[in-house]
Amino acid sequence: MWWDGDMVTSLVVHPGSSVDLSKRDPGSTPGAPGGREATEAEFATQHARLADLQERLWAEGTRELLVVLQAIDTAGKDGTIRHVFRGFNPTGTRVAAFRVPTELEAAHDFLWRVHAQVPRAGEVVIFNRSHYEDVLVTRVHGLVPAHVIRARYDQINAFERLLHDEGTRLVKLLLHISYDEQARRIEERRTDPLKAWKYKEADLRERSYWDDYQAAFTAMLENTSTAHAPWHVIPANHKWYRNWAVTEILLRLLDEMNPQYPQASL
Ligand code: AMP
Ligand code: MG
């Protein structure tokens, strides 16, 4: 299994295991080649390899990669996308963001809008939020009954199983920051003119549901980490570590997939 290695082992949620997020230190840096400087240096060289693998996946044109990013507000979904995927060929790569369902989306089953965004053959798609919102924000705010949430874990596993059987490899990443780090980042957004555009009053209101979100994350991790679509919890207080770890995980999976340029018929 691509996820069953040394560094990755400490970040992966082994299928069927119980999860205690309070025991996973958001400020830790497991497997990093060193401190900030050494890790950023290695991150730079990781890029060329990752970009090469993406190009080959697109050229091969038969298999797909779906990266699911979930996190509490300010944990760094946007920054991860900006940094980790910046070397990718925009042809063959796409970001799909999931917001509050529209009237049309809400009139369908919760996977309807999600299925429409999965990668086509050869493509890499990054989900900025995902179908997991339907067991997270909905649970925290009681938008749907508990028995519906419980059923959704199985429905999600079946859906991801279908994608996997059809040739899509899934990487699911939960960016994990601390309560104090979130306070710092919200304050930064409130006061830094270059970050103010990201600031929403709602972030402060959502912050008061911190414990409920941690509980919802825990239930999600325990119920939907599977051998074909395992979750990784990424310590994300240090952005330099977050970028390195996410890239490392993608490299390991793509190395295992080992996509090939099609035989040239010259
Ligand atoms: P942002 O990612 O900052 O643009 O915010 C998107 C918002 O949409 C977040 O507050 C999410 O919790 C919310 N959202 C995304 N998916 C769903 C969903 N299925 N049901 C309810 N709210 C959702
Ligand atoms: Mg946001």
Strand order of the largest sheet: 2-3-1-4-5
> Could you tell me the strand content as a percent range?
5-15%
In CATH, what is the class?
Answer: Alpha Beta
The CATH architecture term is 3-Layer(aba) Sandwich
Question: What brief labels describe this structure?
Answer:
single chain; 266 residues; alpha/beta; Rossmann fold; five-stranded parallel beta sheet; 11 helices; 12% strand; binds adenosine monophosphate; binds magnesium ion
Structure report:
The chain has a single domain (5-15, 23-257), classed as 3-Layer(aba) Sandwich (Rossmann fold). The protein contains eleven helices and five strands. The chain has helices at residues 6-11, 36-60, 77-84, 103-106, 112-115, 137-140, 146-165, 179-191, 201-207, 210-224, 239-257, and strands spanning 64-71, 93-97, 124-128, 168-176, 231-235. Strands 2-3-1-4-5 form a five-stranded parallel beta sheet, sandwiched between helices. It is globular, with a radius of gyration of 18 Å. The site of adenosine monophosphate has 9 residues, from helix 6.
Short description:
This protein has 266 residues and is of the alpha/beta class. The chain has eleven helices and five strands; from the N terminus they run ααβαβααβααβαααβα. The chain has one domain: Rossmann fold.
List the helices and strands and how they pair.
Elements: H1 6-11, H2 36-60, E1 64-71, H3 77-84, E2 93-97, H4 103-106, H5 112-115, E3 124-128, H6 137-140, H7 146-165, E4 168-176, H8 179-191, H9 201-207, H10 210-224, E5 231-235, H11 239-257
Parallel strand pairs: 1-3, 1-4, 2-3, 4-5
The protein binds adenosine monophosphate (AMP) and magnesium ion.
